[in-house]
Amino acid sequence: MNFRRNLPLTMVIADVNGLKLTNDAFGHFAGDDLLKKFTSILDTELRAEDVAARIGGDEFVLLLPKLDSDGAERLVNQIKARIRNVKSDNSRGNPQQVKKAERDGMAGNQKASGGWI
Fold it and tell me: Domain limits of the chain?
């Protein structure tokens, strides 16, 4: 991915807040449902050239080639807006608001010359 044609390259690290609480309170099926809904949003919002990978229980990394930090910020805000509107049904049949995924950090290569990532 670190070819000149993919620059700038931005990386977003996100976690799904409330996953452990959801698993503990409503069971792992509800937690799995939460993750499926989150990844479905990513599938919808990310471009074909973007890469999303789960790196921990509730942590994800997004690699966004040819997207500067301003574009990545817009994308993150779009994802957050979609998440706020998603509902998840827990095992007791009560709707539970899906916890928003917070952007923990973002880094990108702002220079086409590959100065930093």
Answer: 4-108
Class of domain 4-108: alpha beta
Q: Quote the pTM value.
A: 0.72
DSSP letters, 42-77, are HHHHS-TT-EEEE-SSSEEEEEEET--HHHHHHHHH
| 80-95 CB burial, b ≥16 within 10 A, e <16 | eebbeeeebebeeeee
Residue 86 pLDDT class (50, 70, 90 cuts): confident
The model's pLDDT over 38-73, given as tens digits with 9 standing for 90+, comes to 999 999 999 999 999 999 999 999 999 999 999 999
**Distance separating alpha carbons of residues 20 and 57, to the nearest angstrom:** 9
